[in-house]
Structures are given as structure tokens and as C-alpha cells.
Amino acid sequence: MNTAFYTASAGTIQIQKGLDTIANNIANISTTGYKPSGVSFADLIHTSMKGQGDNLSVGHGVKLHKTDTIFSQGVLQPTGRLLDYAITQENGLFKVVSETGEVGYTRDGNFNLQQLQNGSFVLVSSHGGYVSDPNNNPIIINDPQNLEQTTLNVGVFSFVNMDALTRTKTGFFTSNENSEIPQASNIELKRGYLEQSGVDIASEMSDVIHIQRSFQMNARMVQLSDEVVQTINNLRG
Q1: 48, 91, 93, 217 — which has fewest CB within 10 A?
Q2: β-strands 56-58, 47-49: how paired?
Q3: pTM of the prediction?
């Protein structure tokens, strides 16, 4: 019975991680440019048990194999705001550099202006940090009252391996050796638009029901295993 107990326990813990990922997707259903994470599970190692007949294969639960970011194109919503930008293809990201020099990438094009000491303004993201142009320079605006006649050269960057990007707690993506060096792209931008969250609530709720049933089954197996062990111990007593 120890095998059944630990197998179900392992499944319960891993399935809870999957539920947490889906819950985070649902919580960001209204987050501009948010890309949901998909979860996949894998079997743990199987053990062969010899019996009178054919060998039996006994599993030891499941594990959360990986979470993949789904970079599908979201719906573009018109805002009429001249500091809002939306990327029209899925293989593109805005580059944002923080005051400490940390570089992050995002699909959130809800930008703002921040005044500098010399009186000019710099384009910044809604989470802080200046937005880069295609040449990795900050975008300076000298006349914020004349935005309609001002072309903001907002940069869009793409990666050879988008799946290798790492998602941070602040919602940005960071590059690494597997994603390779980002390249400035000529992907079209739409000014006065924002890309809506890529979360499909119907799909997420379906996944919640499916994973929740697996969680309940594993939790019930833990309970039954514990009850059986207690019964055996009472009989021995």
C-alpha cells in the first residue's frame, strides 16, 4: 500500500502545480499582451513486477513535464491613444530596459511618457523601463503636445527560438543562450491599438475541470491508502 500512497501523493503535488499555472492564466485574462502557459504531464518511471503470468508494470505517478508559452496572436483592440502600440504578428516583442540596465521583452504596448531632467520625454512601458528603438536606444520625444505629427520609432525584436524565453514574475520575458540573440524585425505595428490577452477562458475552464478531477482521484487514493494501512495496523494490534 505504500506504493499506492506515494504514487497518489506525487500525482497530487504535481497536479496542484498544473492548477496553479491555469489559475495564473485566468487571473491575467484582462492583462494586455499576456501570453498564457500550457501545461503537460509525463509519467514517472515504471517498475516491472514478476508474477505467475506476464510481468506487471507498476507506475509511480506523474510529474509536471513542462509549461509552454503560447505565443499565438491576440485580438487587436482599438484605443485611439497615440502611445498605444500592437504587434501584428506573433513572432515579435517590444524591448524594455530598466533603470538598472536589466533587459526584458513584452507584448504589452501600453506605453507612457516620462520626463527627463533636460525637459524632454522618454517612452516607457507601463511597468517601468524605457522602450527601445530598433537600434537599442531609448525613444526621446521633445514635443509631447504634437504626438499626432510625431513618428515614434518603436523597435520590434524577434527570436529564433521563442519557446526558450524565460518568463519573469513581473510579466516580462528574458533571453538566454537557447533563445539566441534577438534581432530587430520589420514586423508591422498598429498605433492606437492594444493586443488583448491570449487567454481563452473556455479552454482554461475545460482544463480546470479535467485537472481537478485528476486531483480529486489522487487525493481520494491517498485517503484510501491511509485508511487501509490504519486497518491493517489495528488488526495486528
Answers
A1: 48
A2: antiparallel
A3: 0.80
Angstrom distance (rounded) from CA 35 to CA 69: 6
User: Secondary structure of the chain in the HEC alphabet?
Assistant: CHHHHHHHHHHHHHHHHHHHHHHHHHHCCCCCCCCCEEEEEEECCCEEECCCCCCEEECCCEEEEEEEECCCCCCEEECCCCCEEEECCCCCEEEEECCCCCEEEECCCECEEEECCCCCEEEECCCCCEEECCCCCECEECCHHHHHHCCCCCCEEECCCHHHCEECCCCCEECCCCCCCCEEECCCEEECEEECCCCCHHHHHHHHHHHHHHHHHHHHHHHHHHHHHHHHHHHHC
- The Cα–Cα gap between 98 and 168 comes to 14
- 180 and 160 Cβ atoms separated by less than 8 Å: yes
Which amino acid, 136?
N
Query: For 48-94, how does the pLDDT look when each residue is reduced to its tens digit (9 = 90+)?
Result: 666 555 666 666 667 777 788 999 999 999 999 999 999 999 889 99
